[in-house]
Amino acid sequence: MKPYILPLSDPQADLETTGGKGASLARLASAGLPVPDGFHITTQAYRRFVAANNLQPGTLAALQEVDASHPATLESASRAICRLFTTATIPDELANAIVSAYGELPGSNPPVAVRSSATAEDLPEASFAGQQETYLNITGAGQVLEAARKCWASLWTGRAIAYRLRQNIPPESVALAVVVQLLVDAEAAGILFTANPLSGKRDEIVINAAWGLGEAVVGGAVTPDTITVSKLDAKLIHRQTAEKQVMTVRTETGTAEQPVPDSLKNVPVLSDEKAIELSRLGRRIEDLYGLPVDIEWALADGKFTILQARPVTALGEAPLEWKMPRPNGVYMRTSVVDLMPDPVSPLFATLGIPALTAQMYPLGKMLTRMQPSLPVDYYTIINGYAYLGAGFSFRNWIWMIFGLLPAYPRLLKQVLPFWRNEVHPKYKQAVAARRGMDPQTMTSAELLAEVRALVDESSYYTCALMFATMGASAGSEGLLTRLYQKMARRAGDPPAQAMLMGWDNLPIRADKSLFDLAGFCRERPSLAVHLLETPSTALADELEGRCTPQGVDPGEWESFCHRFGEHMDTFGHMVFELDYAKPLPRDHPEPALEAIKMYLRGEGANPYERQRQSEERRIETSQLALSRLKGLRRWIFTKSLNWAQSLAEVREDALADIGLAYPLLRRMLAMLGVHLVNAGVLQEAGDIYWLEKDEIESAVAAVERGEKLESKAALVAERKAFWQKAKRTTPPPMIPPKKKYLGITTTVWLAEAEGNQAETTLKGVPASPGKVTAPACVLDGPEDFEKMRPGYVLVAGTTTPAWTPLFAMASAVVTDIGGPLSHGSIVAREYGIPAVMGTGVATRRIQNQQMVTVDGSAGTVRLE
């Protein structure tokens, strides 16, 4: 049986036996660091106390009604459990062991600190520091026993229960150890961070210091002195001496806060020499742990004592440095980058991005009949974010001036037939030819070869859109708008965009399909009720399982599943983002289900009627404009109108089909991930997206040779952590920042820089007119779509055709990136709702359900 008591530096003092605090102190003591003497009351003692008094059933029963979102339930459960602990008795053999260990400490009834030490605290991934209790200046065996009982009970404080609920730690798995140490009668104390907790800088040590015991600093009762020391050369960088008002001191019955004597209030607690001495001690402890730590320290009789050390779990992040791949480069978040609002996965960065660049060359040569010359980093990655490299060399300019520009008149005639007759059919045929492949029967090498082929096919198609529909569409709409403004528009007339709307494109057909599904369900009351009363996440699980829900007619459910499956087969490939690491609508059917529910409730506009009205408005506006023109002016306007309308008609179809290869591509990558899991490279198949192309190629080659492979789990975890950090960062829209480039104001096609945004009003691109004040719904991706409610303002990084179901619910749209010709702008105009694109920071500055006023005419978003 495990012991009830262990000496402070005992090798058995691990996390399971002595908790996080105890294990840390044992580690410090074993390394020869100045730690006050004491002993551990182990988790075995806690379990013996609980078992002897049969406390577990009552404890678990009290937790049954707990809801972390309702503090009253937490406190009610805590009080019930604490009553159980208070009335319980400590078994004799356990009490005797504690009393004996206390008696071995030096002195007669020495004052001690009795500290709780939970098995789920002071860990790098979950800090429970401060969730349980500490009792200072405890004297005598009886007080030590009572303090230990209080520490055990503090495992069940309301805040500790809530913290474990949020961390998904089962209540039956936790236990509590107690550390008993000689109390340091400190003249000064505080905390030391071996990395700057505010800036995240790892080369700085920050010391907080105050008079008296350290509880005033730890508990935030006093504003301490702050000293910053350079970790590299142990020199003071900055000192801020606070006016210290209170201090924690010993009393006959424990501790108390009292005013700091006037003679000490504004006096530095630590001299420069002592601060540097303490910083060197901090360096030793960081080296021992191998990562940044925060340290509780005390100073008594001129000597430092370490009271605790734990990994820093809330370290402020060091800002990312936005270094240019080439010193003379120019990098922009524009063009196809609009489809990549988030940092991309390592696999897409090393496989997809190079493929996009590579496919520009055969396209450019075929269309311009001259070998293209593009920057080597035409598409590149900076801190995980995709950028377009626009720093053109002399050779690049030669191709553009003598190859691209002369070819433009011919291109304008050829690009649409090129997409319709060559690019689109070829892409569809390439995907169809592989549809019969079964990834489960393929070898790792075969899977990798098909992945490369599908990436090349989708990249060629995407690059072709930049020539054939996106760029040409931008030029044609811009020309039509100018001609309309100068030649035909009168006061009160619709904008030029009215002549480019109302097409029956793929996203609109997807909306109609959902509307029809709602109509099908409305005629079957039991099915309709089930859909309306069941969360969409649960409905998605039911659809996947195909089990008939209780209360729904089996035939009706089977028919709904079949119809919904057909919808996903037709429209489920439309990408949320270009990165194939991101799921597809077929993987996340929740937004489609929410749209069906909306139509079932009678909310939202009939998409058939809405499209018909847009079509009529297009025809009427076009005819009105033409009726005002004659001769050459009418001929010029007609040519411009036909060109712009022909591109507008197919633009959204072209964009929506980027993901035709993605369902099969993702299935093949998933199976390749399974192979790498079986080979010991990955822990989960989905982690394949966190490997780089070369790493996968090397692993596949080794698998084919039957070699043993090393795990990449630690590397995957590191890359996931960096991705999260990058995701929290706002990427600059242009590096280096310029107000104009090639004589054009950059805000025409780039998002606003973060530094240009005011505190309460965000600027962006006016993309669809109108003004709305409504709550915001901030969506990171499809996993958040169930949060969307009719009438809310849709706030996202970007939107693609896969987001269309949400437009039927939204009262307005705001995005981080994108411009007047991005998908979100066009669809917002189709739906008649205001839109502001390219704010740069909307998803970071706007909170869920915060009231915002979106002015799509002015291009502003006011935070209410």
What do you see in this structure?
This protein is an alpha+beta fold. It has four domains: 1-182, Dna Ligase, domain 1 (2-Layer Sandwich); 331-490 and 657-727, no CATH class; 498-652, no CATH class; 735-863, Glucose Oxidase, domain 1. It is built from 25 helices and 27 strands. Strands 20-27-26-22-23-24-25-21 form an eight-stranded mixed β-sheet, covered by helices on one side. Strands 9-8-7-6-12-13 form a six-stranded antiparallel β-sheet. A five-stranded antiparallel β-sheet has the order 1-2-5-3-4. The longest helix has 45 residues, at 444-488. The radius of gyration is 33 Å and the shape is elongated.
| Basic shape | elongated
The portion of residues assigned to helices is 40-55%
> Could you give a short account of the major beta sheet?
8 strands, mixed
How far apart lie the N and C ends?
62 Å
- Going across the biggest sheet, name each strand in turn: 20-27-26-22-23-24-25-21
Beta-strand content estimate: 15-25%
Using only C-alpha atoms, the radius of gyration works out to: 33 Å
Number of helices: 25
**Domain count:** 4
Structural class: alpha+beta
Number of strands: 27
